[in-house]
Amino acid sequence: MSEFDLIRRYFTRSAPGAVLGVGDDAALLRVGEGMELAVSSDMLVSGTHFFPDAEPESLGHKTLAVNLSDLAAMGAVPRWATLALSLPSVDDAWLEKFSRGFFALASQYAVDLVGGDTTRGPLNLSVTIMGEVPPGRALRRDGARQNDDIWVSGTLGDAALALAHLQGHIVLEQQVFAASSARLHKPCPRVELGLALRGIASSAIDVSDGLLADLGHILERSQTGAEIRFEALPGSPELHACASPSLVQRCMLAGGDDYELCFTASPGQRARIEEISAQLALPLTRIGMITGGRGCTVYENGQVMQIKELGYEHFAR
Predict the structure, then answer these.
(1) 115-155: per-residue pLDDT in tens?
(2) pTM score, whole prediction
(3) Strand pairing of 284-291 and 149-153?
(4) Which residue segments constitute the domains of the chain, with CATH numbers given?
């Protein structure tokens, strides 16, 4: 099968939101009048971001989901994506399942696949996603201000718990592993939350590398500090029941792969945020506050915690 046959068979779909989609040298897109274009790229590498034997349909879902999460953190409406694949070989069964997972999520959010590339090589998956946001309405990392509340959506640490099981650091019961592995392999991008937070959140980021690492990006860009209450962090009952206190700490503070949103907002927005939580049936938890200093201090029952790990670092030595 040629490269172009592969693209036609598995990755060519109608693209009603584009002037011209897959099949030419470039896509042609028409951005809505008065809109700004939000663009993000993410790469998933076999052996680094997923196990080589990962189930392909879930992998197709996750490949797009991590990019949708970036647009969620910007408060942007997803519109278009490109997909670049490096494949060791042409495996029809694998490609059919991968594309099924990818397009199922793309359909859910009305995202058109408008281009990309394929080549032979180690298994790598790269998506560039594009979305629209009204001028001045994007959520950014540089807007946190002293005394703002810090919030996080959903629960933290379940994906890291599943990874600890897969790496042999802990043994989970099958039911617990099934629940936590769903968070690892099929994350739910919080697109609707990002849109609801326009004009309410002062800053936002998605939690991909770990809460402390990603919150640290907000603090760096906003030139502020933070105080976090560890006992306020939202964790699933399974995490607290199955993991040691040290592993709970690592999973919730530094585990990564949660793809929840961490955001800041003034205390005056608390009632509105609670309304959003109810409307979306999504827990939103206030976990701390922005301070005038630098860095993040984590307290547990009023005592400063000694933190050894902040999150995943690609080029750590």
Answers:
(1) 888 999 999 999 999 999 999 999 999 999 999 999 999 99
(2) 0.91
(3) antiparallel
(4) 3-133 (3.30.1330.10), 149-304 (3.90.650.10)
